[in-house]
Amino acid sequence: MKLLKKKYIKICAGTIGTFVVACLALMLICNQIVVNNAKGKVFSDIDSINNKVSESVGPMDNSIDTIETDSFIVAYRQPINGYKVKAVAKLAESDVDIISADLTFTKGGQSFKLYTQCFGDTLFCKGRMDYEFENPELFKKYKNKTIEADYHICRDKDYQMPIYTPFFFKDLDFDGIEELVIVHHSMAVRYHEGYDVYRIVEGSPVLIDYPPYNVWREDSGFGMTDYPEFDYKRKTISCPYPEGERSWTGHTVYGVSKTRKDTVVVNARKHLFNHIEMIKDIKYASNN
Description:
Blueprint: H1 2-38, E1 53-58, E2 72-76, E3 84-91, E4 99-107, E5 110-116, H2 119-123, H3 131-142, E6 146-149, E7 167-170, E8 179-184, E9 194-201, E10 204-207, E11 229-231, E12 236-241, E13 250-266, E14 269-283
Parallel strand pairs: 2-6
Antiparallel strand pairs: 1-6, 2-3, 3-4, 4-5, 7-8, 8-9, 9-10, 11-12, 12-13, 13-14
């Protein structure tokens, strides 16, 4: 009887030992799988970008539908005008020397996306940069990483608009409601800013697609840039032309229409906004 009991104890001990060894082996295998899957997704070696972007880095965000292999994410820490903003940055299809980005704005459970051609030129620089060399290096540095950034606006006494920021909110039609301005740095004339101006209506961006916000003329070059001057007392916009030249031949003055309104229909509902129209065109005396 005692012999059988000892034999039973030996069998139990052997079984338990085998089970423990198997569990340890399984834990080691699972741990290695986790480590392998985590490679390239969590980083801690990022440098400061321009004293505005933090050094901390987080994992890739799976809530963004499709993250391309060759991209990186910039997630802004603080809400901007109530929006949580993230950018998926990638090399532009039109030019591999340019970092573009899809910007996602989220507020109140609603989201929309807008595109900027020159995200790298606005977020990463403080001054004119040689993007032909700088942007590819920046992209290599942050590729497949997530950067947690502080939103910043730089101002210069010589410019009415903020500089070196990919987007900002500002009232540009004199109705007291701020429009969303998407910036295309270096894509306008002579390295000046180029803008897409959107009204946000019921959580949807609506592009203002007429002059002076969107102008395409041979003598003017691009659409709205940082050349126009906004007079908020008179509620006028003065646009010199031709943009990009060393000397202007005149300027066009726009103001709020007294007879028309812009009508925007969203979700079958009409919304009225100030309509901006040309007031006068002033040609300068020729020096010839």
